[in-house]
Each structure stands twice: as structure tokens, then as C-alpha cells.
Amino acid sequence: MTKNNDIKMMTPTTIVLFIILVAGAVTAVYRMLFGLGAATNLNDLWPWGFWIGVDVLGGVAMAAGGFIIAGAVYILNWKKYKVIVRPAILNAFFGYLLAAVSIFLDIGRSFRIWHPMVMWQVSSIMFIVSIHVVLYTTTLATESSPMIFEKLGMKKALGFVNRIMAPVVLFGVLLSTLHQSSLGAVYLIIPTKLSPLWYSNKLPYMFLVSAVMMGLSMVSFETILSARVFKHKPHMEVLKGLARGTLIVICVYLALKVFDLISGAGISAVFNGSFTSNMWLLEMVAGVILPLVLLSMKSTRNRLNSIFVVNILVILGVLLNRLNVGIFGVAEYASMAGSDYFPSWMELIVTAAMIAFAVLGFKVCAKYLDLYPETQH
Fold first, then answer.
1. What domains can be seen in the chain, in order of their start residue?
2. Is the pTM of this model over 0.85?
3. How far is the CA of 314 from the CAs of 211, 214, 222, 291, 373, in angstroms?
4. What is the per-residue pLDDT across 298-335, written as a single tens digit (0 to 9) for each?
5. How would you label 317-350 residue by residue, b for 16+ Cβ within 10 Å and e otherwise?
6. Rounded to 5 degrees, what angle do the CA atoms 128, 207, 305 make?
């Protein structure tokens, strides 16, 4: 069992992450000074690229574990998962914070990002996405605030937040459910550009279900990894529960994908040897079918290392799905129009810096806040 004081901040890994963070900050400043064209390989045919695909679509999906675990603990009163509720919510907060930063960097006129807050366009799916980011990031900050109030000894504020936690969490569950699906709905506006392997009127539902699948795996991944890094014993029953939940959601997601394929592009479309068909198969085999087979075996769900491997597969599979929808799925259309895209080194650096910021932020919270109260007291 590790106390907060035992967590060392100045380690080689921390130093490397800090260097990456500084490099990303410098690159972000360069982007703000000289524009998207100078810092990225984006163009009119490729207006959205790596930042949207990974940082926004992927980051928000990773954050889904926050509303799932918070809802399970504060609404359904599943006390078993209380031990992981704080890190799950904190992880979600960083995910949404990074998504907001990515949107800020990725829009052409960044300093007009506040416009949707006062210039409502309720018929626009982009307005729905932006307002959800703002509201749910604020909700996650509220859900995480008890750790701050405990640290500062603000008992009245702590008591107030604890009293309103259930309705705040319920509001967050509703917001996150809508936001996960609305990100999929964004791509309904490009029916002629997105490959029929991914374009579907069921895309919002598939984004939501896959986000739940990834959220559960991300919470499990973070729980195992933090236990190893911060040297506290992982709760095996909690991990088994998360694995069972992931298995159920994978089954639902697989059924949705197969039904959509049969009723849409057709089975033959994924076996024609094209780049898009191969990417669809890679996404499904690595991120859905293989985890389904592994989790179906009781021995996998009872072994820490096996669960960890499955978590990685699911996370990578959903990230690949977001890249397929956001980049690879529109590659054929853009190529026919005479444009190709590969992220610039600046795009990669900024993404790496955002990940470094999340990891460092999480470590700082683990060091100075009561992030794991059940293991530290």
C-alpha cells in the first residue's frame, strides 16, 4: 500500500513527458501565430485530420468511463466500484479537457471558440457537440472537486458538492450519452465522402456503444497501470466486473456492426482487398473479435495480465475506428479529388504533448490529492 508521499515526481519518465509537453506547447504557439496551413498538412479537402480523429473522437471515447462508473456508484449505488470512481472521473476530465484544447487548435479562427456559447444554432450538430463539451467538462470538474475541497479543508463546499453529487452525475450521464452519439452524428453530413463501410444512419448509436466499450476498458487499463506504478493492490473483483461489462458491450457492438454491414455495404465489401476493406477488417478483428474470444474464456477474466492485454486491444480497436471514420474512410474520396494527407510532425508532437499532459496531470493528482482513499487509509 503506497502513501502519496511515496510517489516520486522527478523520475526519468516524468522528465521525458515534461520535455514532450514543452515541445508541444511551443508547437501550439507556432500554430496560433502562423495558422493551420503552416503547422499541419490539412487543406480544403482534408479539413479534419489527426487532431480530430485521435484527440477529439478518441479522447472523448476514452473519457466514457467517467460517466459509466460515476453513474454506477452515485446513481445505481454499486458500492463495489467506489474504489475506482475518483480516478475514472479524473481520467474523463483530462480526456474532455484535451478534446477542448484540440478543438481550439483545430478550428481556423481559434479565438472565436466562445461564439457557440452566446450565438446558439440549435439546428446545427456542431453547436450540439460544442455545447456538450463545455457543459460536460464543467460537470466533470464539479464531480472531481471534492478532492480539491478535501485538500484545502473547505468543509462547507465539500458538504455542498456531496449533497448535489447524485443530480450532477445524472446530468453528466445524460450529457455524455448525447455527446458520444452526437460525435457520430457529425459524420452523417458527409454521405458522399465517407466510405459506405462506415457511413450509416446508425453511426451515432455505434459511436455511443463503442465509447462505452472503450470507457470500461480504459478504466480497467488505468486501474491496473496505476496499481503497478503507484504500488497498490488492484481490486480483482472490480476488474472482473469491468471485464464482464466489456464482454457484454462488445457483443452488442458486434451485432450492430454486422447488421449494419449486411443492410448497407454488404459482406463482399470487406473482402475485396481494398485499403478501406482491410482497415475495416483490422479494426474488427483486433478491436472486437479477438477481445470477444479472449473475454469469453473465464481464465482470461481471472488473470490480471490477460485483462490488461484485452484492454489494450479494445482501446486500440476503438481508436482505429475513430481514425477510420475521421481519416481513412474519406481517403478514397479525397484522393479522387486530387488530395492526400499524412499528419505533419507538428500534429504528432501536439498529440503526444496532450497525452503527456494528461499523464503528468494524473500523477500530480495522485501525489497531492486523495485519489485512492480506499488504498491509502
1. 4-376 (1.20.1630.10)
2. yes
3. 10, 6, 13, 7, 28
4. 899 899 999 999 999 999 999 999 999 999 999 888 88
5. bbbbbbbbbbbbbbbeebeeeeeebebbebbebb
6. 130
Which three cell numbers, joined as nine digits, stand for 333? Answer: 474520396
Q: Which of 227, 202, 181 is nearest to 2 (CA)?
A: 227
Cβ–Cβ < 8 Å for 194, 328? no
Query: Position 166: which residue type?
Result: A
Count Cα atoms within 13 angstroms, Cβ side, for 213. 30
Which phi and psi angles does 337 have, rounded to 5°? -85, 0
The per-residue pLDDT for range 110-168, each reduced to its tens digit, is 888 888 888 888 888 888 888 888 899 999 999 999 999 999 999 999 999 999 999 99
Inter-residue contact 98 to 55 (CB < 8 Å): yes
Q: 325 by DSSP, 3-state: which?
A: helix
Give the list of residues 6+ apart from residue 344 with CB closer than 8 angstroms, or none: 39, 40, 41
What DSSP string runs through 360-377?
Answer: HHHHHHHHHS-S-HHHH-
Cell numbers standing for residue 57: 473522437
Return all residues near 315 (Cβ < 8 A) that are at least 6 apart. Answer: 62, 214, 217, 218, 221
- Residues 293, 295, 296, 299, CA torsion sign: positive
- Count of C-beta atoms within a 10 Å radius of residue 47: 12
Helix runs in the chain, H state only? 12-34, 36-39, 50, 59-62, 64-70, 85-106, 115-118, 125-152, 155-186, 203-230, 236-263, 275-284, 290-295, 298-301, 304-326, 331-336, 345-368, 373-376
Question: Measured between alpha carbons, how far is 77 from 296 in angstroms, rounded to an integer?
Answer: 27
